[in-house]
Amino acid sequence: MFYVVTGGSGSGKSAYAENLVLSLGEGRRIYIATMMSFDEESTKRIARHRKMREGKQFETVECYTGLDSVRLKKDDIVLLECMSNLAANEMYAQGGAGEKTEEAVMAGIRRLLQDVRHLVVVTNEIFSDGMAYDESTVEYMGHLGNINQQMARLADGVTEVVYGIPVCMKGGKKNEASA
Amino acid sequence: MILVIGGESQGKKEYAANTFGLAAEEFADGASCTEEELLGASAVDHFHEYIRRVLKNEGEEGVLGLAEKLTGQNPDILVVSNELGYGVVPVDKFERLYREKTGRICCALAAFAKRVDRVVCGIGMVIKNE
């Protein structure tokens, strides 16, 4: 099964995604980490996420670009976090796919879907704050938006996490709470 | 506790007042109220502005334990807050801290709240109702 978990910054989407992985049963749990550490803030953020995963028995695989070169086993349960970092790495990092970011990322996603038992991808809602951005950032948003749409088409379930509350967009119950 | 969230200018306060039977005067304003007023109010609007002010004046330590204080001392309050964090990571360090803290604090309030409504275009969607 393929699940996409999205949400804003600080929405609790990582915690939700980790619990989703735990609910998918026993098996080797792989965490594909995509965030490069380049300053104190990112190091702190990575440390916070590592602490959250403690005791949940994840093996970490680092992948900053070239997702389709990651080789995993057919019974693996995989959590990839976060698509917004992976897409940015492909676009901006040396050795990244540049203009071919969407193709490179989706080739990796399709490869994982063939290879593993369950895949959960955490992505990010960066599309709604009405600020004007520079050209390169707008291009990045376009790539990430298209990747999110393509993943959602392939996914069995898509959930937006709103301050820790799952709002189901695809698969499962549409409205989790009723008035 | 009831939490009403949504983007800027979505009619959250009016929705909250109508849905939960409150008068406009019953809302404290997060943009100007004191901590004492917040902890004594039956409702607060612009809660994100309260977080922003405390962060500006007192730094990160100022909001440490804010969620616990509010849930502990004013557990029946109705909180109206903007939902932040739906844009590209801000370049400015304070703006990054502000949206991160607002997110974490609202996650804690949402976990505690019996009901959470999300307002878009003035229309509320109940996303949690215990």
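qc> The first helix of chain A runs from residue 13 to 23.
qc> done
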